[in-house]
Amino acid sequence: MRWTPRPPTGSLVVMNTPPPLHLRRVDPDCNMARFYRLEITASLFGDHALLRHWGRIGQKGRQIIELHRDPGSAARAFSRYARQKQLRGYIRVSREG
Description:
The chain has a 5-stranded antiparallel β-sheet, with helices on one face. Strand 3 and strand 4 form a beta hairpin. It contains 1 helix and 5 strands. It has one helix at residues 71-87, and strands at 21-27, 32-42, 48-56, 62-68, 91-93. The chain is elongated and about 50 Å long.
């Protein structure tokens, strides 16, 4: 497969994307205090970036940036990760902290 660049499209505006999602899972009996954050934003190269940030509450954590060609693909990945984490016991919080 050969990569071909796309023509520039001017400024990229990510529209109809979900707001950032902050999730937490806290279980004192297991000494567990974790966070998970999802956000869709525009990348510098005209793609749509899904930022995934997770770790122990109070620590720096880890981050991965996934690039998607269209906002629909990024939104589907966003929903898939959110659903997976909520099935594992993470709950939505109003803000990360």
